[in-house]
Amino acid sequence: MGLREPFRGEGRDSCRSHSSDHKPSGAVPLFMSNFEQVVNMENKRTQEASEKPSDKRALTRRRFFGKAAGGVAMVGALPGVASALDKDNGDVLDVVIIGGGLAGLTAARDLRRAGCESFLVLEARDRVGGRTYNHDLGNGYVSEAGGQWIGPGQTAVADLARELGVGTFTTYYDGETVLLAGDGRVAIDLHGTFGTDPKIAAQLDELAREVPSGAPWKSKRVAELDKMTLGDFLARQKLKPEDQIGWDMTSLLSGGTLPAKMGLLHFLSMINSANSRYEQLDSIKDSAQETRFIGGSQLLSDKMAQALGDKLRLKSPVRQIRDWNQAVVSLQTDTGTVRARCVIAALSPPLCNQIKFDPPLPAPRAELQRRWPAHAPGRKTAHVYAKPFWREKGLSGGILQVNGPLIWAYDNSPPDASMGVINAFVVQSMLPDDPKLAEPILSGIFAQALGKEALKPQQFHDLDWGHEPWTISCVSPIPPGFWSRHGEALRPQAGRLIWSGTETADIWAGYMDGAVRSGHIAALQALQALRQG
Fold first, then answer.
1. N or C: which end of the chain has fewer CB within 10 A?
2. 474: which DSSP letter?
3. CA distance 38 to 390
4. CA 158, CA 152: separation in Å to the nearest integer?
5. Closest Cα to residue 322, out of 344, 345, 338, 335?
6. How far apart are CA 530 and CA 379, in angstroms?
C-alpha cells in the first residue's frame, strides 16, 4: 500500500528465485475461480524500480523531474536568488518545513543543494519517516510497519535511494499463496499477481487512460465517472460472489476501503499512475509491490535527517500559523515560535486540520481539508521466525482470508533469508488491541495456512496507525464526488504557504514515490517565492 503510504509501494509504501516471466495459461484457473472452492467449504494485497522501455509516459515524466532536480541544483546561480539566500535574515528564516517525512526531508535536502541554509524542519514526532517505520528485529535486520515497496515507474524514490546509498532487493513471492475461509484452505501459485480477472482489469485500464493521475477532476468524463463508486462499476460486471471477494480485498489494500465507498474516478487515477495498467498497480511481479529497500524504507528518511543536523527539530508540533498572507509568517510550536518568509506544509490534508490558521485559510482549501477522508489508519503486524520455513514447503508466505481478521499476509524476510518474517495487514475491529492477545490469534491463522511451526514466533510486532496522532490516516479512500468539488484546491499556494506531501503528487500520489516528487516540487516553489521576494 505504498506509502501508499504507508503500506503499498505509502504506498503499499520483494526476492525471486523463480522464473518471473511465467504467466498462468488459460488452462490455469484464476485466483478467484479457485477461491470458490474455499467459499463453498465455509458455506456447509534486482532491478531497482526499473522502468519498462515501453513506458513512454513515465519516461517523459522522469526526464521532466530530472530537469527539475537539476533546476534545484542550479537555482542558486540564477540572478537575484543567490543574494536572497546568502543575506543575513536575523531571526527570520527563509523557509520552514513542517513534517519530517519523505516529502519534507526531500524538500530540505533540495534547498540545501541549491545553496539555501536558512531553513528549519519541524517534526511533531520524536523520529523522522512519517508513514514509514522500521521495527528493529536485532542484528541489523528490520521489518517495515508502514510504506515499504517501490516498483516500475517510481523513479523519484528509486533515484533518491541510489543517491543515499540505500540498496534494494526483490520481494519474495515464489510458491503458492494460501486462501482461507473458515476451515477451508486452498493453495495456488498466483505467479506474483492477485489473479484479478483480466477482462475487468482491461476495462479499468481503458477508462484510466482518460483520468489524469495528478488531476482526476480534469477528466473529460468527470461528470460521469465521479458519480460512481468502484462498487457501482463492478456491479455492472455481474460478478460471482467469489470474484467479488477478490475485488473487496484489492480495494481494501489499495485504497483503504471497500468498493462500495471507493470513488471510481479516484481509483482510475491511481491506475493511471501505473501507466494505466491495473496489474502494475496491484500485483507484486512488475508492479508497485515488486521492490524493497535493504535496511527498510525508513532508512531513506534517517539518512536525510542525519545530514541536516540542527536544521531538524523533533518533538515540535506546529499548533498555530499566523500571518500566512503577510511577508513574514509566524509558526507557534511546542518548542517556541519560529518566523519565516515561506512555509512548506509537508503534511497530509487531514493533519492540517490540527493547526489553527490566523487568518483562516481560503474557503476552498479549508473545505478540502475538512472533507478529506481520514478513516483508513491501517494496522500492520510482523511475526518473526528462526527461518522462512514455508519456503521449504513450496509456499510463498502469502495468505488471504475471507471474513476474518487477516486481510493479507506476505513474506517480509530479509534478503539473505537469515530469519523468517511474515507481515500482515489486519482488520482492526476484528482483532484485540492488546498485542499479547492478537499474536496467538494470528499465529493460529498462519498455522492453518503454513503449518504448525507458525504457532511459536520468536518475536511479534504490532503497529496500529490509528493510535498515531500525527498520522490519522495512512491512505486516502476518496469517495465519489470529492474530486469534482474539491480537487482544484489541492495544490494552489495560500499566501506564503506551499502544500506538499504525497497526496499532492502528479503521479504515484499516496505512495513513497509521490512523497519524494512532491518534496522536489515544493523546494522549487519555495526557491521561486524567495526570488520574487
1. C
2. S
3. 21
4. 9
5. 338
6. 41
Strand residue runs (E) in 435-481: 459-464
Q: Residue 101 is placed in which grid cell?
A: 517525512
Per the CB < 8 A criterion, the answer to whether 247 and 237 are in contact is no
Q: What does pTM read for this prediction?
A: 0.86
Helices in 177-309 by DSSP H: which ranges? 198-208, 222-225, 230-235, 241-255, 264-273, 278-282, 298-308
If you ran DSSP here, which 8-state letter would residue 212 be given? -
Question: What is d(CA 345, CA 458) in angstroms, rounded to the nearest whole number?
Answer: 41
CA distance 102 to 80: 29
Q: How far is the C-alpha of 92 from the C-alpha of 50, rounded, in Å?
A: 42
Cell triple for 504? 499532492
Rounded to whole angstroms, how far apart are CA atoms 492 and 510? 18
Asked whether the beta carbons of 517 and 65 are under 8 A apart, the reply is yes
- The candidate with the shortest Cα–Cα distance to 72, out of 160, 151, 162, is 160
> Which residue(s) pair with 96 in the sheet?
120, 343
- Cα–Cα distance between 518 and 65 in angstroms, integer? 11
DSSP string, 66-86: HHHHHHHHHGGGSTTHHHHHH
* DSSP E strand stretches across 427-475: 459-464
Question: Cα separation of 132 and 309, whole Å?
Answer: 20
Q: What is the C-alpha to C-alpha distance for residues 397 and 173, in angstroms, rounded to an integer? A: 7
Rounded distance, CA 355 to CA 375, Å? 19
Q: What are the pLDDT tens digits along the chain (533 aa)?
A: 444 444 444 444 433 233 333 333 333 233 333 434 433 444 443 333 333 333 433 333 333 334 344 444 434 433 344 334 434 345 999 999 999 999 999 999 999 999 999 999 999 999 999 999 999 999 999 999 999 999 999 999 999 999 999 999 999 999 999 999 999 999 999 999 887 788 999 999 999 999 999 999 999 999 999 999 999 999 999 888 878 888 988 898 888 999 999 999 999 999 999 999 999 998 999 999 999 999 999 999 999 999 999 999 999 999 999 999 999 999 999 999 999 999 999 999 999 999 999 999 999 999 999 999 998 889 999 999 999 999 999 999 999 999 999 999 999 999 999 999 999 999 999 999 999 999 999 999 999 999 999 999 999 999 999 999 999 889 999 999 999 999 999 999 999 999 999 999 999 999 999 999 999 999 999 999 999 98
Region of 182 please: left (phi>0), alpha (psi -120 to 50) or beta.
left
Q: List Cβ neighbours of 72 (8 Å cut-off, separation of 6 or more).
A: 110, 111, 113, 114, 520, 523, 524, 527
Rounded Cα distance between 519 and 500, Å, is 6
Contacts of 485 (CB under 8 A, 6+ apart): 371
Query: Which phi-psi region, left, alpha or beta, contains residue 351 (left: φ > 0; alpha: ψ -120 to 50)?
Result: alpha
